[in-house]
Write a structure and sequence with these properties.
mainly alpha; Cytochrome Bc1 Complex, Chain D, domain 2; 3 domains; flat
């Protein structure tokens, strides 16, 4: 009887392997089905990258930290009004009265300061005082712009200060275009700087000596042509791309081109 029971319970290696595989199959199948379900849910919940909002969000994420802005170093500085300086520089502290700054339009804050006088307030704003840095932290502001901002803020709180107007040109100062240019000297400047474009008429530049190309431009007169050359116009960069060119040399080059086309100084 015992021998018969032993024969019935004894299993071969093949049967053991089949039992193990069969036992693992069910949990592995369950795990596989769970993974497929999760992947299916994630696939259905992919973010919409086609909408305008999604595209703006993507652009914001990849936007560079800093941006370069090309400025014309030869362009004349246009001084801001008192309100423009306030909006760009002073409002950070004076709008809310941060760091002890007198709050804009608050007569209680400004009263004692107005009593110090306009010149004293301008001096403090220019040099800095207590927690306020010189020129409100904007070193590019001119004395005139600082004074205008002080007057704007103080007057909003009841003062009657008169802001400065634009500074007048220094006495006796004359622009390069006012001096008599020398076309003969301009020939050398033309050869070194202007010939690159004006010798062949590249990029729409009027070719030297081409009266038809220069006819409309001659009507601007020497001063008009000089200003275009100084500041740049159309495809021509300021000073023909030579930032080291002096105003006198530029004037001579313009005179040379003008006279070669039959114009008069």
């Amino acid at each position: 009887m015992a021998d018969s029971y032993a024969k019935m319970t004894q299993a071969t290696p093949q049967e053991v392997i089949i039992s193990i595989v069969a036992g693992l199959f069910a949990p592995l199948l369950a795990i596989f089905l769970v993974i497929m379900l999760v992947l299916s849910i994630q696939d259905n919940q992919k973010p919409d990258t086609t909408s305008e909002a999604a595209q703006k969000a993507t652009a914001a994420r990849i936007k560079p930290v800093a941006q370069l802005v090309a400025l014309d170093a030869n362009a004349p500085k246009v001084e801001k009004s008192g309100q423009e300086v306030y909006d760009a520089t002073c409002t950070a502290c004076h709008a809310a009265g941060a760091l002890g700054a007198p709050k804009f339009e608050n007569k209680g804050d400004w009263g004692p300061r107005i009593g110090q006088g306009y010149d004293t307030l301008v001096k403090h704003a220019t040099e800095g005082i207590r927690q306020m840095p010189p020129r409100g932290g904007d070193g590019d502001l001119s004395d005139t712009e600082v004074a205008r901002a002080v007057a704007y803020m103080a007057n909003a709180a009841g003062a009657k200060f008169t802001p400065p107007e634009a500074a007048a040109p220094a006495a006796g100062a004359a622009s390069a275009s006012a001096a008599k240019p020398d076309p003969a000297k301009g020939k050398a400047v033309f050869d070194s700087t202007c010939a690159a474009c004006h010798a062949t008429g590249v990029a729409g530049a009027p070719k030297v000596g081409d009266k038809a190309a220069w006819s409309a431009r001659i009507g601007q007169g020497f001063d008009g042509l000089y200003q275009s050359a100084l500041k740049g116009k159309n495809a021509m960069p300021a000073k023909g791309g030579n930032a080291d060119l002096s105003d006198a040399d530029l004037a001579n080059a313009v005179a040379y081109l003008l006279t070669q086309a039959g114009g008069k100084l």
